[in-house]
Amino acid sequence: MKPLTLTSYDSPMGEFLIGGHNEHVYFVKLGEVDDRHSWLEKWRNKHSVDEPLHDLEAFPDVKQEFDRYFNDGLTNFTFKTEMIGTDFQKRVWQVLNEIPYGEQWTYKDIAEAINHPKAIRAVGGAINKNPISIAVPCHRVIGSDGSLTGYASGLNHKKFLLHHETKSSNWLHQTS
Fold it and tell me: What residues does the Methylated-DNA-[protein]-cysteine S-methyltransferase DNA binding domain cover (predicted)?
């Protein structure tokens, strides 16, 4: 069984649940406490993870990067992750990291980037399973018509993040 350390982070969007072991983050989950608890139990069972150790001081570098993201316009996260998923999901999640800050790609763009242009629905499924919110930026994926489609943490949070990044991105370009 894999060990698991849990901590929380208070963001402008609400509390995040951060889980991992040593320096590697397995997930960053946003949402209501009951939803996070239910998600965590399913995730632990699926991935054979030990009973979690709660440590409010864990992952200080991750919390610092989120502070910078929300306050200073940090555009790239550098904390260590261990993405737990299928090979297909990992390929999709890797491409998510290639979406530049302040930009949006479509599900079709992602499918083409992994050389599976017809796998748009499968890409959507993989994006929905992204375990590391914000740092692996699935919120930057929109529908082909420009609509804000699905976001596991809710469309209100997706709108908040896209607005935050567009505002920060415009500011970054103005100061360059």
Answer: 87-166
